[in-house]
Amino acid sequence: MVFGKKRKKAVRGLEGVVAAETALSFVDGQNGKLYYCGYDIDELAGKVCYEEVVHLLWFGELPDQKQLEDFRSELIAEMRLPNQVDELIRLSPPNANPMVVLRTALSALGMYDPDGGKNSEGANLRKAKRVLAQMVTIVSSLYRIRTGQPIVSADKGMNVAANFLYMFNGRTPGKLDRSVFDSVLVLHADHGLAASTFAARATVSTLAGIHSAICAALASLKGPLHGGANTRVMEMIEEIGGKDRVKAYIDGMLASGERIMGFGHRMYKTEDPRSRHLRKYSEKLCRRAGLEHLFEISQRIEEQVRRLKGICPNVDFYSATVQEALGIPKEYFTCIFSMARTAGWIAHVMEQFRDNRLIRPTSNYIGGFDKRFIPLEKRK
Ligand code: COA
User: Fold this and answer.
1) CA 34 to CA 25: how far, in whole Å?
2) Which residue numbers are catalytic?
3) Which residue of 55, 79, 205, 305 sits 20 to 30 Å from the alpha carbon of 65, by its own alpha carbon?
4) Residue ID of nearest Cα to ligand 1 atom 37
5) Ligand 1 centroid – CA 273 distance (Å)
6) b vs e for 337-361, b when ≥16 Cβ sit within 10 Å of the residue's Cβ?
7) Measured in angstroms, how far is the CA atom of residue 312 from the centroid of ligand 1?
8) 235 C-alpha vs ligand 1 centroid, how far in Å?
9) Structure confidence by residue, pLDDT tens digits, 301-325
10) Distance CA 37, CA 25 (A)
């Protein structure tokens, strides 16, 4: 064998492989902590708005009042789509997965962006603001179109979180909804080298642009082992239907080797700190919306999975009932995650651009050699 005994063993799932240096976020899986640019998210959640975290991740510091207002105005001003993309969303099949529409629309936006193929720092920042803002507009427009309601334009007087709820539901959100939704966005903003973030960095390392990188990230986030889990969590809760049925359902799933969506994590060996905040929000919002039963089912699921498998809920578990109680249909949950994570994806893309080297790992060839070529006409 040509490569002999010296070849390295491939690391399955790249577990523990360090593939980038980043100053953006740190997942302390042993202690159940998450830091954005040095700030513990327990310090940030509920105290800052999403734009502050976007500013932190993109520019390395929290904004002062004036910077925040300017940054917010710039983002809100970009919450509109070219007519062609609006039309593309209208023409999408009514049963297409919203994540597929989001990815397709974002890809199309790359064709109409005035900074198109430019990769200078200035062009990238302009594209970054547009992409982040337009994600909000794509998701809300899709929902409005599918529910036969007129599209709602962004309101300059609201922040990003409130604008999304306003553009999605068509009414000004109440105080609790806006503050919880803002926290949801903050908690999902970045998370080290998650699969989608790695996909974004690998894509941009070829010097493909921001739109390509975000499309790659969206494609990765869609899967149920990543952001797609939140929709599956809601499906599971609905399928269970009542708290008395939780035990039998979970026992049956685990006995047949199925995974429970919204549980487990590659990095966390203890509780995911984001789920602590989301559990609290879920309880509050479910109670207010008369959906206590959904929270109770969730709690029972958590108890049973912890008891039988010793694994904890991740960010996707309680975010499902939070979003449900905010009136967001479950097929849009992963789109919300995408909107929030765009902050982190773009920050990583910019970080990669600043010190780029092509990401090109290697593989062990385990196929054969010495095969004899047979011309097509002689193959059987
Ligand atoms: N339900 C049941 N068992 C689970 C589990 C889950 N959600 N997550 C992990 N496990 C078990 C595995 O079966 C495995 O058990 P074993 O060692 O007895 O075979 C062990 O925990 C390790 O799992 P592994 O697949 O090696 O972990 P990973 O780091 O590769 O996977 C996830 C991480 C997130 C993909 C995994 O936990 C999962 O599939 N979770 C459900 C999907 C989800 O919620 N995704 C969102 C993540 S934020």
Assistant:
1) 7
2) 226, 265, 316
3) 79
4) 264
5) 18
6) bbbbbbbbbbbbbbbbbeeeeeeee
7) 10
8) 18
9) 999 999 999 999 999 999 999 999 9
10) 6
Q: Judge whether 245 and 136 are in contact, CB under 8 Å.
A: no
| 97-133 residues labelled b (16+ CB within 10 A) or e (exposed) | bbbebbbbbbbbbbeebebeeeeeeebbbbbbbbbbb
| CB-CB contact of 313 with 302 (8 Å) | yes
Tell me the average pLDDT of the chain.
96
- Output the pTM of the full model: 0.96
Q: What ligand 1 atom has the least distance to the C-alpha of 314? A: 48
Per-residue model confidence as pLDDT tens digits over 103-117: 999 999 999 999 988
Residue 298, C-beta contacts closer than 8 angstroms, at least 6 positions apart: 237, 282, 317, 318, 320, 321
pLDDT value at 4 more than 70 = no
Listed residue (336, 317, 296) closest to 235, CA to CA: 317
CA-CA distance, 217 to 210, in Å (whole number)? 10
Per DSSP, the residues of 110-157 read HHH-TTTT--SHHHHHHHHHHHHHHHHHHHHHHHHHHTT-------TT
Strand partners, 25: 36
Q: Which two tokens stand for residue 242?
A: 């009542």
For residue 117, the model assigns a pLDDT of: 86
Give the 3-state secondary structure percentages of the chain, helix then strand then coil, rounded to 5.
60, 5, 40
Q: Apex CA 274: angle with CA 272 and CA 275, to 5°?
A: 70
- Quick check: CB of 315 below 6 Å from ligand 1? yes
259 lines ligand 1 (CB under 6 A): yes
